[in-house]
């Protein structure tokens, strides 16, 4: 049975993250992440959509929505290190143009979420966040956490799933390919940062082997291809090359829409505006 779906036109931000748990108790890390977000003020939660992607965890559990606008997806094919595919799937289900893509060992404080909700569409720009560590100090941005436009992500075919099956370099290639296609990397102001979560490593980490050798060779091959052929060959354009299920979908009551009587009348301005 299809869920009873209301409009999602009020959603201004989609927060996408993915995980793999190989032991039942490790699902606690994801639940704690969502419980924390559920404590945020209603003006943030009403306009944020959360997408959780389970990347083929071999355990049974019952997902909960925690009162959030939440889509919970579960990849059913067993593909080690399917991070690129999980991120592609999450972005596909996003309900907004502006998206955040993150690993589960980071989150965003309420002030940063509110700032992102109020931002205009990212268009060509993609943003990184400084990170607040457990000592309250700001650190450099995480290599694989972005605030960007869903349309820009899709225009250049998302993450290259040729990197799936082995560890690392998918994030490096994603950034390089975006930049070489004209996307602009920026940073949010320092006061709108991300946070490193305080997680129990035994309940958060999985047992997959982190071996860089295979993807390092793939990355170097793609560097040579783009030097010689441009973007015609260097991205495999493999996208969602696996099966998945929708485990849970939940919507909060939509806030009352803002009256905009001039929006339709100004359609001609959007026609001539090169940035619209």
Largest sheet data: 6 strands, mixed
Q: Please tell me how large the radius of gyration is.
A: 19 Å
Number of strands: 12
Calculate the terminal CA-CA distance, rounded to whole Å.
38 Å
Tell me what you see in this structure.
- Helix content is 28%, strand content 20%.
- It is α/β, with parallel strands linked by helices and 276 residues long.
- It has a single domain (13-272), classed as Spore Coat Polysaccharide Biosynthesis Protein SpsA, Chain A (Alpha-Beta Complex), CATH 3.90.550.
- The longest helix is centred in the last third of the chain and has 17 residues, at 213-229.
- The two termini are 38 Å apart.
Nutshell version of this structure?
By secondary structure, this protein is an alpha/beta fold. It has helices at residues 27-38, 42-45, 83-92, 110-117, 150-155, 170-180, 201-204, 213-229, 267-272; strands spanning 13-19, 48-54, 69-75, 98-102, 106-107, 125-128, 131-132, 138-139, 146-149, 184-187, 194-196, 244-250.
Keywords, separated by commas or semicolons:
276 residues; alpha/beta; Spore Coat Polysaccharide Biosynthesis Protein SpsA, Chain A; six-stranded mixed beta sheet; four-stranded mixed beta sheet; 20% strand
């Amino acid at each position: 049975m299809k869920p009873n779906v209301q409009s999602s036109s009020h959603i201004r931000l989609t927060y996408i993250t993915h995980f793999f748990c190989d032991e039942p108790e490790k699902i606690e890390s994801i639940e704690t992440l969502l419980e924390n977000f559920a404590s945020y003020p209603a003006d943030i939660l009403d306009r944020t959509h959360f997408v959780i992607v389970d990347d083929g965890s071999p355990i049974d559990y019952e997902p909960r929505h925690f009162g959030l606008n939440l889509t919970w997806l579960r990849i059913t094919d067993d593909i080690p290190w399917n991070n690129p595919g999980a991120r592609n799937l999450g972005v596909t289900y996003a309900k907004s143009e502006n998206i955040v893509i993150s690993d589960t060992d980071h989150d965003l404080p309420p002030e940063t979420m509110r700032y992102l909700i109020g931002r205009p569409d990212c268009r060509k720009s993609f943003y990184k966040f400084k990170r607040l560590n457990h000592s309250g100090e700001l650190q450099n941005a995480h290599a694989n956490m972005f605030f960007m436009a869903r349309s820009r992500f899709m225009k250049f075919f998302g993450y290259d799933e040729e990197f799936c099956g082995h560890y690392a370099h998918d994030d490096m290639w994603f950034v390089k390919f975006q930049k070489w296609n004209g996307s602009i990397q920026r940073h949010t102001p320092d006061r709108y940062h991300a946070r490193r979560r305080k997680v129990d490593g035994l309940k958060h980490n999985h047992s997959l082997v982190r071996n860089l050798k295979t993807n390092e060779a793939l990355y170097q091959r793609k560097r040579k291809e783009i030097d010689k052929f441009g973007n015609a060959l260097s991205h495999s354009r493999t996208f969602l090359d696996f099966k998945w299920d929708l485990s849970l979908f939940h919507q909060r009551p939509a806030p009352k829409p803002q009256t905009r009587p001039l929006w339709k009348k100004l359609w001609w301005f959007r026609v001539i505006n090169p940035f619209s």
